[in-house]
Amino acid sequence: MIERPSDAPDLSSVFGWEGKRVGLLFNASSGRSVARGMAERLAILLDSLGAKVPAIRTHQSDFREQMRIISEEAPDVVVAIGGDGTANAGATLASELDVPVLIVPAGTMNLLARDLDIPIDFSELIDRVVRCVERRVDMGEVNGRPFLHSSVVGAVPELARVRESMREAASVGQWLHRATRYLRIALADHEYSVDLDSERGHASRVCQSVIVTCNELADAGFLEYRRERLDAGRLGVYVAAHRGPLARARALLSLMRGKLRHDREVASASCERLSVDTRRRSMLVSNDGEVLRLRTPLEYGIKRKALRALVPVGGQVPVEASGDS
Fold first, then answer.
1. With b meaning 16 or more CB within 10 Å and e meaning fewer, what string describes 100-127?
2. Cβ neighbours of residue 237 under 8 Å, at least 6 residues apart?
3. Which of 245, 244, 239, 232 is nearest to 304 (CA)?
4. Per CATH, is 147-304 categorized as 2.60.200.40?
5. Quick check: 187 pLDDT over 70?
6. What's the CA gap between 159 and 180, in Å, rounded?
7. How far apart are CA 302 and CA 273, in angstroms?
8. Is pLDDT of 177 > 50?
9. Burial of 134 (0-12, 13-18, 19+ CB in 10 A)
10. Per-residue pLDDT tens over the stretch 96-127
11. What span, in angstroms and rounded, lies between the C-alpha atoms of 38 and 50?
12. pLDDT, mean over the chain
């Protein structure tokens, strides 16, 4: 676990479910495809705790329809069940409504959930969700589009878009065609000339990708992708200049090992605002795994403690901190 004493949960701010109106957001197509069943189980539990949970309707498999309904109902808390894209959507909605959000991980990476030490195992989360504490954490944004963990420019969004199309392939032949395209993109050198401007100055680079994180990455364990702080109000910037398949493989290994900022071919820095310009009118950007096409320059910023995140702690909360008499 990464030590983050300055942004640790305040155990005096225990969240009570009694009487709270819940906005339930889930993505039935998230990585593990079990979000609907999790939503149904969680709804039963929250109802037993005195929360006001709307019925899960058949049409709620429509994600955009869920967002619209939740916004209109103006709940006291948003519960987002799914992967990082669902977490992003739920957090954005909660921030706009100025209410807390509980992220229930049901995807592949679950990056913010891991940073918040939210149990990935649903049974463990169910045991703890009886008591939650509220934490204020930062939100990043690029051209006004929010991200909770990271925003990536370069080949990664291209690969993500092709990978999504592979999932939607209607035949084996179509899947093989798209898989071949995926390999071509993965093996090719993608060089981008970028101009980087921040409050710290200007730099021009030729690179393969630019990774911007909401607060700097920590030296974490294998496949953890954790950050040092969640409330420092700083963007982490990592400009990767690796060329050739072997070099890119080394870069991927550095990222997987949590050692990206120690890679000799990665220029890293931190700042409060960042402008990324290229010779292209627009760029594909991956915000928490969601691929967007945004006009350049890409204007990055960070909103300090804009998100009220609930962390399930269950029996870890001392009685005197709960406010009970």
1. bbbbbbbbebbbbbbbbebbeebeebbe
2. 196, 198, 210, 211, 212, 213, 268, 269, 270, 271, 274
3. 232
4. yes
5. no
6. 11
7. 7
8. yes
9. middle
10. 999 999 999 988 889 999 999 999 999 999 99
11. 19
12. 83
Torsion of CA 229, 231, 233, 237, to 10 degrees: 30
Q: How far apart are alpha carbons 288 and 160 in whole angstroms?
A: 11
Report CA dihedral (120, 121, 122, 126) to the nearest 10 degrees: -100
What number of CA atoms fall less than 13 Å from residue 104's CA on the CB side? 29
In this prediction, residue 322 has a pLDDT band, given cuts at 50, 70 and 90, of very low
pLDDT score of 159: 74
Could you tell me if 141 and 306 are in contact, meaning their C-beta atoms sit under 8 angstroms apart?
Answer: no
For residue 107, the cross-strand partners are: none
Name residues whose C-beta falls within 8 Å of residue 278's C-beta, 6 or more positions apart in sequence: 192, 193, 194, 195, 296
Assign 3-state DSSP to the chain and report helix, strand, coil percentages, each to 5. Answer: 35, 30, 35
Kindly report the pTM of this predicted structure.
Answer: 0.83
Higher pLDDT, 302 or 4: 302
DSSP letter, residue 314 = G
Query: Token digits for 277?
Result: 């310009």
At the top level of CATH, the class of 17-130 is alpha beta
Contact in structure between 53 and 47 (CB atoms under 8 Å): yes
Angle at which helix 84-97 crosses helix 63-73, to 10 degrees, equals 20
Angle at CA of residue 303, ends 218 and 300, nearest 5°: 75
Q: In this prediction, what percent of the chain has a pLDDT beyond 70?
A: 79
d(CA 1, CA 208): 31
Highest mean pLDDT among 27-31, 65-69, 227-231: 227-231
Q: Which residue has the tokens 């979000």?
A: 35
> What DSSP designation does 53 have?
-
Domain boundaries, the chain: 17-130, 147-304
First to last CA, the chain: 33
